[in-house]
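job 3f2a | input accepted
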Amino acid sequence: MPHAFLLVVCGLFGLVVGSFLNVVVWRVPRHESVVRPGSHCPSCDTELGALENIPVLSWVVLRGRCRHCHARISVRYPLVELLTAGLWVGLAQRFGSTWELPPYLVLAAGLVALSLIDLDHFLLPNRVLYPTGIAMTALFVVPAVVDAQGDDYLRGALGGAAAFAVFFVVRVVQPRGMGFGDVRLSFVLGFALGWLSWGHVYLGLFLGFLLGAVLGTLLIALRLRTRKDHVPFGPFLAAGAMIAVYWGTQILDAFSRN
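job 3f2a | predicted structure (258 res):
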């Protein structure tokens, strides 16, 4: 597939997937089906037509309001669609037309949903976490077989197990500092990073802890949070892992030269 065409395809499909992730983020914490009923206005419950479900464009044309009740529609909806599209384009640029691309696309989509749910509800639901992990690890089987990357798959599995073990110990030692959802998430991230290298595992998890510590300290310094307030850790782990996926090789090379 020509590279430019791949970027366009990933961007367009990323917008569509981002639209679906908005549904997931809203419904999963409320224990609702993500399939039925169809998309509807959260204010008046009117089911949206096809032309009202076009990612980003519908929100812009309707000026961020429901066509039926004129209630405001959060700008987060198009932003999630654009974020997912941007992540997918970045991954297409990173991996190109390889069998490694699909599992990382699944990972990015899952992390967007999990991060937003964690921010809203301090929760990393298994209904999102397990399908993301299962689909990603299953898709990695393809390059492991087709491109003879079995060693990478094994390293990914070991990276996931190692990350899970470390987070499990942290959870046992300091249960208030980390939820068990973060422990489960660590396996998924460790697998995805371990596929690339052990250095990516260390870097991605370190960046997650660093981002969490820096922002937590900043919120306390600005008196927006106290030391007793809970800060969701999942988004920081997700951000650290994705930074390592995109730029980990360059970062690790720069450190090795120094």
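job 3f2a | The longest helix spans residues 3-27.
job 3f2a | closed
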